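Reviewers of the previous submission asked for a worked example of the structure-prediction workflow described in the proposal, so we include one complete record here. The input consisted solely of the amino acid sequence. No template or homolog information was supplied to the procedure at any stage.
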Amino acid sequence: MSVDDQDLIRGERVVYTTHLHWIVLVAPFTFASVLLLAGVLFIARPEFLRDRLDDLTAAAAMLFPTAIHESVVLGFALVLVGMVVAVAGLWQRASTELTVTTRRVTVRTGLALRRTLEILLPQVESVEIDQTLWGGAMGFGTVVVRGTGGTPEPIAMVADPFRFRREVQGQIELAHPPSAHVSTEPWDTADSRARVPW
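From that input alone, the workflow returned the following structure tokens.
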């Protein structure tokens, strides 16, 4: 889903790309691990847990009378659900990408249903960062890119948000370097000072 050559216009190159922080994987991976462990226990049926597993299987039979209640089948179902949860977590992290090129800022979300927001560098008004104490310690935060005439949308848990902002600001300065200040006031020049009667 990254910005590739066909998305770039002539003379444009990718300067920086970031995704969501790995912290977004903690919750789904923890839940997936619990489901996988439970599934393996139901499949292996170790002797010290056999009575309790039979009780759980009987309870499942009372709650879902039309389903198959073999502990092995239930174990495989838990393993499958755990794998789906883990893949969903990876999918979520991979589906969000913030890219800075020499001409624009691109925010892409989603894989199956892709949504892309592009703001040309001259139209970027500000890059705001909201970061909690925990986010500062771990290196993630919420990024809001404000563009001229657009509606800003926060992107939560972005990895290294301050570097992202630095890259955007750096490209804006390269595209539009600050011009030297030229005063138009008549008393700032030597000739005009010579003409002033006092």
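The chain has two domains: 5-21+96-175, 26-92. We consider this example representative of the routine output the project will generate in years two and three.
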